[in-house]
Amino acid sequence: MHSAQELVSQLDALASLPTVYQRIRDELDSPDGSVTEVGRLVAADPALTARLLRVVNSALYGYGGQVDTVARAVQILGLQQVHDLVLAMSLSSVFAGISAEHMDMNRFWRGSMMCALASRAIARGCGLPSAERLFVVGLLADLGHLAMYQTVPDLAFEAQLAADRGEPLAEAERRLIGCDYAEVGAALADHWKLPPCFAEVLGAQLDPRLGGDSAFDAAIVHVATQLVRADRCGESSDTAAARVAAPVWQQLSMSPTSLGRIREEAELNLAAYVALFFPKLGVQ
């Protein structure tokens, strides 16, 4: 049996965040961090520069193609959002070595992006000023599975087969591996030194009550993941809503009937966002 920390320690030799992201994170954490220095760090990576400008100038961000330099992008977006965008754009390269035998990466990133979009839509509906942050947290929600498929791929696949037969996936993972994907995702976020709220939300996404100060955000991601499951399994939004406990709806001041609208919004933007953040994947 394996602990989440053990899997993450094994993963460390296989996957790490790009150096440019780590430097941006350090700059953000520094009391002397500056917009100018973050702009310089991004500009030193031509590929990252091109992708960031493409994202900022897309219709999805509403700046009408007027942002022509990294410095301007950082000024407009702010340090925190640039940090989050660089993190989001780094993910596909970090896990480029996943075996196609065990995981359909196109399907995985499509689901992750849908979770990101649904999380942001729910956060906006709840009036949260941190809605863009929830986009990135939602994108990371299934991160634990990527770690599992790189470190214990056969066991992870066996757990998925058990889930296909009706056993809850997290329970199958705990039985076969010793930990579930939420635990592994939280351990990885902590190991990568992501903002503490990331690990809190990822670890509590199966049961938002365990999220402490991040319980509200964990409830948002919990609801969003039900939509992803419904999308993958061809289920209705009503079926997805029925899997969410009544206290979660009460916590978010949401009605289960609102899930259909959130799903429509996420599906409407899905292809465009996948093309922006994962241009090489060709996700449908």
Mean pLDDT: 88
Q: Count the strands?
A: 0
Oligomer, anyone?
A: single chain
Helix content: 55-70%
> What is the count of helical runs?
17
Structural class determined from secondary elements: mainly alpha
Categorize the overall geometry. globular
Gross CATH architecture: Orthogonal Bundle
Rg calculated over all Cα atoms: 18 Å
Order of helices and strands: HHHHHHHHHHHHHHHHH
Give the distance, in angstroms, between the N- and C-terminal Cα atoms: 36 Å
CATH class: Mainly Alpha
What's the CATH H-level homologous superfamily?
Hypothetical protein af1432
Pfam family, one: HDOD
InterPro entries: HDOD, RNase_Y/CdgJ
Protein name: HDOD domain-containing protein
Domain HDOD: 14-208
Describe this entry's structure for a reader.
The two termini are 36 Å apart. 68% of the residues lie in helices and 0% in strands. It has helices spanning 4-11, 19-29, 35-43, 46-57, 70-77, 79-94, 105-125, 131-139, 143-151, 153-164, 169-176, 181-191, 196-204, 215-233, 237-242, 246-252, 259-277. Helix 7 (105-125) crosses helix 14 (215-233) and helix 12 (181-191) packs antiparallel against helix 13 (196-204). It comes from Thauera sedimentorum. Residues 14-208 form the HDOD domain. This is HDOD domain-containing protein. It holds the Pfam family HDOD.
